[in-house]
Design a protein that fits this description.
- The protein is mainly alpha-helical.
- The protein has helices at residues 16-29, 41-44, 51-68, 85-94, 99-103, 106-112, 121-135, 149-166, 212-221, 240-253, 257-264, 269-295, 298-327; strands spanning 3-8, 34-39, 76-79, 141-143, 175-177.
- The chain folds into two domains: 3-182 and 298-327, Rossmann fold, CATH 3.40.50; 202-294, Tyrosyl-Transfer RNA Synthetase, CATH 1.10.240.
- The protein has a three-stranded parallel sheet with strand order 1-2-3. Strands 4-5 form a two-stranded parallel sheet.
- The longest helix is centred in the last third of the chain and has 30 residues, at 298-327.
- The chain starts with a strand and ends in a 6-residue tail after the last helix.
- Residues 5-7, 9, 40, 43, 130, 133-134, 142, 144, 148, 151 line the site of tryptophan.
Length: 333
């Protein structure tokens, strides 16, 4: 059976964009793949994290996987730092990847901003650790959002160079799994910006911990424009807020955006927003409730993480041993 690996950073405020773009898709994959889902806390500290927040947010990612419907018996849920193979393999990949490759990573440029001298070395080497996450399990498929495609290309480059340099076929070339339309969820306050964990306005996003009332309130206050919904998709092109709400509806209802327009063309937002609110409350509300229940039971979440870490370590250990041997590290016997 092919193997899936994916990760979510425990940096707080998990939102509808994380759900529709990633976590929701993790659930269905369990039927066809062996799935490993990670809270990537080592990636999180590439920028400053308050330690207590990091602990809570790591549990929060695990809880989000569970609340969305990942089954911890079938799949593995764990925290990256609990399995040392990630760090060990990342070091080896630091010595495989080339500076020139990392210099081309657009996410580093965005995150480091103007003050690149002051960015952490970890932020720069981030994609090598991501390659280690995936290849420590020889995962074959990785479900991610569009924004991670370049990092997956780098994972393939690292796998390929390692195999070539050492004359082996150790690592598979991973395939991205990028899901259907409208996975790009935009801010509810500004349709030109992505929905984001770090937006100062809580009204810009619907989070995993919002209850039904706050989901409804945020959608009621969501920015729109004065026109009714059009009949054709092209007519949404210059209407970012309308396009975003139609996209969210489509994703939640498992419809195409055109199907949503077929149903609502000519409708004013005074009609469409309540329909969207009902749908969002129906689909996303129960997840918030489950999150609340899991929050009240951190012992349960911790036991899922512990079990996951043991199973993940058992899978990664032989891969790491194989790699160390190939590289020429003496194996302690
Ligand atoms: N970089 C990913 C993100 O920010 C998170 C991540 C880390 C990841 N390691 C991974 C995703 C391995 C997929 C596979 O979204």
């Amino acid at each position: 059976m092919s193997r899936i690996f994916s990760g979510v950073q425990p940096t707080g405020n998990l939102h509808l964009g994380n759900y529709l773009g990633a976590i929701r898709n993790f659930v269905g994959l369990q039927d066809n793949y062996e799935c490993i889902y990670c809270a990537v806390n080592m990636h999180a500290i590439t920028v400053w994290q308050d330690p207590e927040d990091l602990r809570n947010n790591t549990r929060e990612v695990a809880a989000a996987y569970l609340a969305a419907g990942v089954d911890p018996k079938r799949s593995i849920i764990f925290a990256q730092s609990s399995v040392s193979a990630h760090a060990e393999l990342a070091w080896i990949f630091n010595c495989v990847a080339r500076l020139g490759w990392l210099n081309r990573m657009t996410q580093f440029k965005e995150k480091a901003g103007k003050n690149r001298e002051n960015a952490s070395v970890g932020l720069y080497a981030y994609p090598n650790l991501m390659a280690a996450d995936i290849l420590a399990y020889k995962a074959t498929h990785v479900p991610v959002g569009e924004d991670q495609k370049q990092h997956l290309e780098l994972t393939r480059d690292i796998a390929q160079k390692f195999n070539k340099d050492y004359g082996t076929e150790t690592f598979p070339l991973v395939e991205p799994l990028i899901f259907g339309e409208a996975t790009r969820v935009m801010s509810l306050r500004d349709g030109s910006k992505k929905m984001s964990k770090s937006d100062p306005s809580d009204y810009s996003r619907i989070t995993f911990t919002d209850d039904r009332d706050s989901i409804a309130m945020k959608l009621r206050k969501a920015r729109t424009d004065p026109d009714p919904l059009p009949a054709k998709l092209e007519e949404l092109d210059n209407r970012p807020e309308a396009a975003n709400l139609v996209g969210i509806y489509a994703a939640l209802a498992d419809m195409t955006r055109q199907q949503v327009l077929d149903e609502f063309s000519g409708a004013a937002f005074s009609t469409f927003k309540p329909a969207l609110t009902d749908l969002a409350v129906e689909k996303f509300g129960p997840i918030g409730e489950e999150m609340k229940r899991l929050r009240a039971d951190p012992g349960h979440v911790d036991s899922v993480l512990k079990d996951g870490a043991e199973r993940a370590s058992a899978l990664a250990a032989p891969v790491l041993a194989e790699v160390k041997d190939i590289v020429g590290f003496l194996l302690a016997r």
